[in-house]
Amino acid sequence: MSGAAEIQKLVIASGNAGKLREIRHLLDPLGIEVLPQSAFSITEVEEPYCTFVENALAKARHASKSSGLAALADDSGICANALNGGPGVYSARYAGEPKSDERNNQKLVDVLRNQTDRRAHYYCVMVLVRHADDPQPIIADGAWHGEIILEPRGEGGFGYDPYFFLPDLGKTGAELPMELKNRISHRGKALARLTECLKEGAF
Ligand SMILES: O=c1nc[nH]c2c1ncn2[C@H]1C[C@H](O)[C@@H](COP(=O)(O)OP(=O)(O)OP(=O)(O)O)O1
Ligand SMILES: [Mg+2]
Fold it and tell me: What is the pTM of this model?
């Protein structure tokens, strides 16, 4: 059975409005009907693992089980060189609970203020399961390299974007139109790779 090629309806296993906007835009051309997990009152699941891929798989399985649909999850984060890749998988709750982009950003800036190396990359793993116990999840990843600046710039994007500076573009992630961000971002790359796997009909 070439299940993936036949996916017509998908739940996005995320409660993050910024991610949902970007993923919807990326999936639009594929003609797949996309529903947010909020449409099924799906609760947030624990993300207890120390790898992005394990957390993404947990989110995808949970959303698929609760909705009865194929599910696509995104686990992502910002990884700073000076922090040995931190906050990484812990990016969403870097400054503790409840999650707050503002406090996360402030903490990252404070921690990196006296570092000379402020290079960082975003990393994203996307996982697609056809059903909760799918033994062949499709897994794809992507990275996006830049550096952390100490003053925010731009109103777009979400999360760490106002502090994530792209030297080649002379702009932060929050200063890019979503179309451009999606072409070059960790999420855009991961979803492009995932789409390739779908087209190949790898299973
Ligand atoms: O393009 C991005 N632009 C800005 N910030 C970003 C990006 N991509 C990931 N990030 C940050 C946001 C959050 O602090 C963490 C993701 O954490 P992560 O657990 O994957 O997502 P989340 O908890 O916000 O929503 P959910 O788990 O329901 O998908 O990395
Ligand atoms: Mg999360």
Answer: 0.96
